[in-house]
């Protein structure tokens, strides 16, 4: 089977399209024939060697997988060849205290699919059966691959780590990104009044088309003041932040008293300096969010099936052009998700 493997870190890294032996499932695993796989900043970090964990190369990246079950391991029950599935990319043990209470995103033995083990930029991938989520009818593979990781991250941030109350002002950073585009839709559906940011007119227009009531230009250094103006100087109740660095610091300039910042990423920097005086005087909260639980993926896909959450797909690359897909994501000149499809569309009707 064909797989795209990262053989040397770099920016760009060195990839090879390889013919590998077909994977065989361990007793608790299934083999998924990958139909679509989303690309994420996590993949860029893997490519650059920028993750704070050691990685053995070669490695097949790709964590946002949708496909059909091709084989099942000897002890797998409840899943059958041909079932259409999404895969929870933050693999979990299912046995630790956090997994037992449904918080798989806190698993003590968590592993990232496509980082710690081979992922979905391949025709086939072996995954633990417990990481599977069934695709609801009406949700196709590309929709799933465009929402399973980034969309469920936003779902986890907005419905598990924090809450949106009707009428709340919600600031969704980067409305054209995977997390941002889902956060706008989820927050609005929950009754929030959404403000979003974008670095280009096209990105801001996309954010508005997804439900943002107001958009601000993130290239204007004074954008937090714009947000304060929009809210009549009050500030927003909730910020969905996934960039980190100076952006995380700036969002406190437009956060209301008693407001919450929830953050899940640090592409712009992992270390920040925060002025604690206004933070505790205004009784604000900064909440970390990591990955998602099974329940978040199920909710995300159910919302997609009912039309409440729409995928935003920038472009789809064939497997052989995976390196170009990485370069395209790195360019940041994208609107929504970049996907890789291992098979030509014609072969999907088999
Ligand atoms: Zn666990």
Give the number of domains.
2
Name the quaternary structure: single chain
Question: What is the residue-mean pLDDT, rounded to a whole number?
Answer: 95
Question: Rg from C-alpha positions?
Answer: 20 Å
User: Would you state the CATH class of the largest domain?
Assistant: Alpha Beta
- Secondary-structure element pattern, one letter each: EEEHEEEHEEEHHEHEHEHEHEHEHEHE
Helix fraction, binned, reads 25-40%
CATH superfamily of the largest domain: Medium-chain alcohol dehydrogenases, catalytic domain
CATH architectural type of the largest domain = Alpha-Beta Complex
Described by the principal axes of the CA atoms, the overall outline is globular
N- to C-terminal distance: 17 Å
Enumerate how many helices there are, as a single number: 11
How much strand?
A: 25-35%
Number of strands: 17
Q: Which residues sit in consecutive blocks of at least 5 with pLDDT less than 50?
A: none
Judged by helices, strands and strand pairing, the structural class is: alpha/beta
């Amino acid at each position: 089977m064909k797989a795209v493997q990262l053989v040397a870190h770099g920016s760009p890294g060195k990839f090879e399209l390889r013919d590998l032996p077909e994977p065989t499932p361990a007793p608790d695993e299934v083999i998924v024939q990958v139909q679509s796989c989303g690309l994420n900043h996590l993949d860029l970090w893997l490519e650059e060697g920028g993750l704070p964990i050691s990685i053995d190369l070669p490695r097949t990246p790709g964590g946002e997988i949708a496909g059909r079950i091709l084989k099942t391991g000897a002890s797998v029950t409840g899943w059958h060849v041909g079932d259409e599935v999404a895969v929870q990319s933050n693999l979990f043990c299912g046995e630790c205290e956090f997994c037992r209470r449904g918080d798989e995103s806190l698993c003590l033995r968590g592993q990232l699919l496509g980082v710690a083990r081979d992922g979905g930029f391949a025709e086939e991938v072996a995954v633990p059966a417990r990481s599977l989520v069934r695709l609801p009818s009406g949700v196709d593979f590309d929709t799933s691959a465009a929402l399973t990781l980034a969309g469920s991250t936003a779902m986890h941030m907005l419905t598990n780590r924090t809450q949106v109350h009707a009428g709340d002002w919600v600031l969704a950073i980067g409305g054209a990104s995977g997390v941002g585009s889902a956060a706008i839709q989820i927050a609005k559906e929950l009754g929030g009044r959404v403000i979003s940011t974008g670095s280009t007119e096209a990105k801001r227009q996309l954010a508005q088309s997804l439900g943002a009531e107001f958009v601000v230009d993130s290239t204007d250094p004074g954008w937090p003041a714009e947000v304060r103006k929009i809210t009549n100087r009050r500030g927003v109740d909730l910020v969905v932040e996934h960039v980190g660095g100076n952006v995380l610091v700036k969002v406190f300039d437009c956060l209301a008293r008693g407001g919450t910042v929830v953050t899940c990423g640090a592409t712009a920097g992992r270390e920040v300096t925060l002025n604690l005086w206004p933070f505790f005087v205004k009784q604000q909260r900064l909440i970390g969010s990591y990955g998602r639980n099974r329940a978040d993926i199920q909710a995300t896909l159910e919302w997609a099936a009912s039309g409440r959450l729409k995928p935003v797909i920038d472009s789809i690359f064939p497997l052989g052009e995976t390196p170009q897909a990485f370069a395209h994501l790195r360019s940041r000149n994208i609107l929504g998700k970049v996907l890789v499809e291992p098979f030509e569309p014609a072969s999907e009707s088999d």
